[in-house]
Amino acid sequence: MSKPKVAFFDFTSCEGCQLSKLNLENDLLDILELVDIVNFREAISDHGEDYEIAFIEGSISTPHCVERIHKIRRQAKIVIALGSCAHIGGINAIRNNMDQDEVRETVYGNDKYLFPSIKAQAVSDVVKVDYVIPGCPMDNQEFKRVLSALLTGKIPEIPEYSVCVECKAKENECLYDYGIVCMGPITRAGCRAACPTNGHYCYGCRGLVPDLNKNAAKDVMEKYKLSIDQIKKRFYMFNTNYVNMEEKSYE
Amino acid sequence: MSAKAIAREKIPDAVLLLKTKYRVIAPVPKGKTFVFKKIDDPQEIVLDYNTTILPLKKFFLPPREVLVEYNLKKQEYREPEIKSEPTVFFGIHNYELQGILRLDYAFGTGVKDETYLKKRKNNIFIGVTYTPDDFHFAKSVGIPTDLKEGFDIFLTKYNSHYRVEALTDKGKSIVSQWSEFLEECSYDSDPVVHFKNKLKQSVAGIREVFHGAYNHPVWKETSKKCYSCGTCNLVCPTCYCFDVSDEVVLGTNRGSRSRRWDSCQILGFTEVAGGEAFREKRYDRVRHRMSRKFAYIMDDRDRPFCVGCGRCIRQCTANISITDVMNALL
Ligand code: SF4
Ligand code: SF4
Ligand code: SF4
Ligand code: SF4
Ligand code: SF4
What we know:
The complex is a heterodimer. Chain A folds into two domains: 5-151, 3-Layer(aba) Sandwich (Rossmann fold); 163-249, no CATH class. The N and C termini of chain A lie far apart (50 Å). In chain A, strand 3, helix 3 and strand 4 (78-82) form a beta-alpha-beta unit. By secondary structure, chain A is an alpha/beta fold. Chain A has ten helices and five strands. The model of chain A has no long low-confidence stretch (mean pLDDT 88). By secondary structure, chain B is of the alpha+beta class. Chain B has helices at 11-19, 57-60, 94-108, 114-117, 169-177, 217-225, 231-234, 282-296, 311-314, 322-329; strands spanning 4-7, 23-30, 33-38, 64-71, 76-78, 87-92, 123-128, 153-158, 161-166, 182-184, 242-248, 254-261. The N and C termini of chain B lie far apart (46 Å). The A-B interface holds A 27, 30-31, 33-34, 144-145, 147-149, 151-152, 154, 157, 160-162, 164-165, 168-174, 176-178, 184-186, 209-213, 215-217, 219-220, 223, 250-251 and B 30-33, 35, 53-54, 58, 63-64, 72, 223-231, 234-235, 245-251, 260-263, 266-269, 282, 315, 317-319. One iron/sulfur cluster binds next to helix 7 of chain B.
């Protein structure tokens, strides 16, 4: 059986997920035995390449991104969003709540008209995404799990339960006991509760749980003395595209 | 034999002696709270504690455990060996052991779960009384503080001493080795204990409360506050639901099937192949948890699966209280 051809593409992102992949160096040789990596960076052209699995990193935030991702989708059999930026828009999406013209001016100054941009979106907002590997940065072990599942013909599963599930399994003390507001109860697990285990609250980088009860979360945060503004910031840090804090709906 | 007592300061020595023959597991502090842990230094044991983050079930049904290991190419599989090291569980509250007895019932009747049952061999339980905090309500579910069922030895606190009662042969043989630490016990009555948290009605007949309560407003009201984090199930001594998954190590033929704790409060739990969810609505899931504890399953003596430890209330960040919900029905 020939090895599946894999390509990695960068969109709007930091290098965090890239660096994360480099940390896989111990496994890189194993991985290279299983797949052919046909390109790692945008530098090599996107089209005409022969690949079946496309890993996408970064969010879609310019008209050019939209064009590229459509081309990739046409070529690839399987598209996998890698990291928060690609999965949910992530940090980049914070600017979606700001005045877009001002954002451009702040970043590009007088050259702002040379750099058209659109809302920072998840890859799945633009094209069909088959699987996701959440997290900022993405989790190496999960990357290996997903790849292993794909190569053995299984559907890669990522948790949809909350970070609390993993946090409790580790018998961590809950940060709420210290009056610290944590996004764990409404954030998708899979990071082995990395932040709370190290004494820091969860920021929600793996995206929100599928059946978010926003108002319950807001009520708890308020009870723990976060102002509405602070609560919004917690939600918008990674999940701007998935919550509208202005809208009220009790579910 | 006249009653014996042990002074608090002699306890570490008594445990040290146990440690020569047994693995000893006891409560120790963790930050502001407590956890059960294998004891290296008996000085770290606390006997005045409200409760631990996780119940004792973590030793018998660990948060994650491998059930089978296999090799796809060789078509071979094997079950990991389960050692049941002789273990003393020291300083255990009675609702805690009642939780284990409920799990024994669940895993030991019908199809037997050997992975669980094997770990229940060679266990010795040494109980201790406790002062209920704002959340314990064990008495309301038929577990008054002087219930000693299942214990080999029971320690009843009295000022700076504990009355020592050996209740089984194993317990008696341990107590006989403790003779140098024991003194005559000057009291024989059990202390009077008050529970601040209670159910309006005791457990007898509580099951009937659920008849006609299917559409009670309390389910929806509670579900508005609940964000389905799953904590209440994970920390519950009698919750035993797990999810099974397979994983093949990247680039090898080696794989394993393991189980991990699951929670009926989470949407995915009720999903079956094809994406259909039985209890899509959050209030259905809230009602399900309460019904599981008080109506759906009872042990062979018709006792409910809630032992009143209060963990699900204590650790719910949304402050949802199983006693408030039940009292709304009663
Ligand atoms: S998900 Fe995080 S680490 Fe990865 S590219 Fe985006 S910002 Fe960087
Ligand atoms: S610290 Fe955060 S993740 Fe952990 S149990 Fe508490 S709320 Fe959940
Ligand atoms: S604990 Fe939260 S913020 Fe930290 S890695 Fe996990 S999901 Fe991301
Ligand atoms: S711990 Fe509280 S918020 Fe979380 S699922 Fe249970 S009742 Fe709901
Ligand atoms: S339902 Fe709550 S109080 Fe009852 S045994 Fe479980 S955790 Fe303890």
